Amino acid sequence: MAETDAPSGSGVNLYPRIEAELESRLFSASTTSALERDQRGTNIFLRGEFEATLHLSPQWSVEGAIDLEPIREVEPKGGTVGFRDQAAYIETLRLDWKPTERLTLFAGKFTAPFGHGHEDFPGLLLDVRAEETYKIRESIGIGGTVAAVSDPRFGEHKLSAAVFGFDTSPLSETAFTRKRCCEGGFERFSRNTRGQGGPGNTGQFDNYVIALDGEDMPFLPNTAYHLALLSRGPGVDGTKRETGFVAGLRHEIRWTEDTSTLLFGEFVQFRGAGGDPREQRPEILNEPGMAIGGSSEVTVLERRRFTTIGAQTRSGPWRATIGFQQDERKRSENQLPRASFFEASVGRDLPMNFRLDVGYQYSTGVERRGDKADAVIGVLGWSASF
Questions:
Q1: Per-block average pLDDT, block size 10, for the chain (386 residues)?
Q2: Predicted pLDDT of residue 11
Q3: pTM above 0.85, yes or no
Q4: Residue 219: CB partners within 8 Å, gap ≥ 6?
Q5: Which sign does the torsion angle of CA 67, 72, 78, 82 carry?
Q6: Among candidates 247, 249, 246, 248, which has minimal Cα distance to 223?
Q7: CB 3.0 to 4.6 Å from 349: which of 64, 120, 303, 317, for a disulfide?
Q8: Is-cis flag, bond preceding 181, omega within 30?
Q9: Distance between CA 242 and CA 273 in Å, rounded?
Q10: Can you tell me the distance from the alpha carbon of 216 to that of 55, in angstroms, rounded to the nearest whole number?
Q11: Could you give the CA distance from residue 165 to residue 186 in angstroms, rounded to a whole number?
């Protein structure tokens, strides 16, 4: 956010002051063909974030963010559904302290520095799927970022680290759509609890992440990278710690002054994904597909890999984006198919801070092996700064 200067001649910044940003996107996803009829139809939903920063002094600030999004996947069942199961919640509420130009420390509620794609992938749904898979939100704890290297010869390299727990405080309350834990299909409930389980939900500050980011490297011009390691303890349904690794790369090719192509990719792997949880496995008779009505509890060992590659070319207000994502989950029990997504879109910046992107998505293996679906997607975005 840009800094606001005091009246001319004062030579100082005004404190305290507030800066805010609003980002919203209206989605229309029309599935034109799918094996299951319930998956066909149109789903309209809204995603947005309101972020505000209270600058108390040059060293101290308070940052807050509220997110709005659907918290459950809704099947249109051959028709049109709109704004179903939308919810709002506090994404960030933290205190920042900058004792020097190269060091920032923070405490409170935040998103752990693991992956960039969920924040900045272009296109239609690339960032949404990344967010659903590996955005480490609901983190409450402490952390910091230091400019480890800042040299014109070697570029800018920042080291970030955080120690955190899973937020079960009143800050985890959800507005609008409020469901009691733990109704199936919902990603959020009225308030986080230990009982909902999941990696990191241990009731202790025993999760940690460390990340390294680099850019402005003269030997790799127009290139930026991101590397991070994550470790989260098992929740009440888990049996071991989950470890994660992410590697991301972005490279921009500048053809002319107003035409460029951005190449981007990010690879994420989780071992002990979900904390190797305990799940119910149906008991099967010798006859194929016949269950006796009972089940047994088993520990599910899982390794999950999520890959994104893509490119976007911009020329003035126009842009064209292609992207491919693959979600591979190798499980010892209750196996899942490998899901793949391909999307292509064109878009344009519009007056009054609006923007419009329209494109096509082809997906396979989302529900079960052999699934295929085609969809036409439109996204109308709007942003503003205050």
A1: 42 83 97 88 97 97 97 91 96 98 97 96 97 96 97 96 97 92 84 92 96 96 98 94 98 97 98 89 59 73 96 98 97 90 98 98 83 95 95
A2: 42
A3: yes
A4: none
A5: negative
A6: 249
A7: 317
A8: no
A9: 6
A10: 28
A11: 21
Which residue is it, tokens 């149906």? 282
Q: Give, for 359, the enclosing helix (H) or strand (E).
A: strand 354-364
- Residues whose CB falls within 8 Å of the CB of residue 100, separated by 6 or more in sequence, listed in order: none
What DSSP letter does each residue of 250-276 carry, written as one string? EEEEE-SSSEEEEEEEEEEEEESGGGS
Find tokens 């606001």 and name the residue. Answer: 4
Nearest to 247 by CA among 106, 57, 117, 68: 117
Query: Phi-psi category of 288—alpha, beta or left, where left has phi over 0 and alpha has psi -120 to 50?
Result: beta
In degrees, to the nearest 5, what angle opens at C-alpha 58 toward C-alphas 171 and 136? 35
Residue with tokens 């020097």: 100
As a three-state string, the secondary structure of 120-180 is: HCCCCCHHHHHHHHHCCCCEEEEEEEEEEEEECCCEEEEEEEEEEEECCCHHHCEEECCCC
Please report the pLDDT score of residue 297 as a whole number: 84
Question: DSSP letter string over 17-76?
Answer: EEEEEEEEEEEEEEEEEESSGGG-EEEEEEEEEEEEEEE-SSSEEEEEEEEEEESB----
For the chain, what's the residue count? 386
Contact call for residues 262 and 249 (beta carbons, < 8 A): no
For 213-224, what is the HEC assignment?
Answer: EEECECCECCEE
Short-list 17, 87, 4, 14, CA closest to 46: 87
Q: What is the dihedral of CA 234, 235, 237, 240, to 10 degrees?
A: 10
Closest by CA to 317, choosing from 356, 359, 345, 262, is 356
